[in-house]
Amino acid sequence: MLGNSTKTLGEFIIENQSSFKYSSGELSKLINAIRLAAKVVNHEVNKAGLVDILGSSGDVNIQGETQQKLDIHAHNKFIESLTNREIVCGIASEEEEDFISINSSDEKHQNSYVVLIDPLDGSSNIDVNVSVGTIFSIYRRVTPIGSPVTLEDFLQPGKNQVAAGYVIYGTSTMLVYTTGDGVNGFTLNPAIGTFYLSHPNMKFPKAGNIYSINEGNYNHFPQGVKDYIKYCQKEEEDRPYTSRYIGSLVSDFHRNMIKGGIYMYPKSSKASNGKLRLLYECNPMAFIAEQANGKASNGHTRILDIDPKELHERVPFFCGSVEMVDKVESFM
Ligand code: AHG
Ligand code: MN
Ligand code: MN
User: Fold this and answer.
1) What DSSP assignment string belongs to 288-301?
2) Which fold has domain 210-331?
């Protein structure tokens, strides 16, 4: 695919910025900053097996999970890249308890966008050389330009997102994103450090035959989820489905979008809201899914309609091919 594509991400951003209804120059700069940080993190992820950046840092992040060294590194790189360019007014990261308010050099808080990121998703996979990713989500602030950002600017329902995307550091590195006008995927040519449009207008197949869930938690799942898993495993014309679970949302989502499938992280008797974070993981993936003809739900409600109450809140997540998400909802 890469061989036939000559359009670079840089060219694509410029060509498409006029179709974007709000301050498009600013958004383009923002995507460019993410593109740059993605390349830096990609470089670090690729050499992780070689240097002492590998492994646990010994610190624990705000959710009480062990932070891997690369989580912190990725967090720092994205914050640095976005802060230095003075293109956002605030950033919230899965790796930090509070949001960061960014003053422009003239202290006038002139920028209109906030960014939320999961700097390294699937980080438990780093030590074993399996794909990881970065997820980002962009909103326009709701408080007036010229004042410092507040929590309100970050606690917006996912349907307010103006852009969202992910980077997957896999067999090749890709950046996939949407600005609300479809989903496009770009593959990095590592020899020259350029992303090329390799997957234009990505769409989830309507139906699929892959289900992705941590089945080790089966006994703790709600009855509806147990029933749906049994449905997936039943001998019928197009079943049993195939089970695939990498343990990295970005990678599982990416495969399911290309091949047709569903990703599930339900609540359980051990975790009343599941594990995934609404703002850093579920909302951006839900926005991408809907833009690609897929669907994302908490089992009952559209993810993008949920009003967030706190920065690090978690939510059950069912996301993928529309017929599969409809089906699991019917079991709930
Ligand atoms: P993170 O590495 O950002 O903490 O996210 C990991 C998430 C998600 O990517 C993955 O699908 C899920 O956690 C795996 O959780 P389990 O190990 O509980 O299945
Ligand atoms: Mn994550
Ligand atoms: Mn993470």
Assistant:
1) HHHHTT-EEESSSS
2) D-Maltodextrin-Binding Protein; domain 2 (3.40.190)
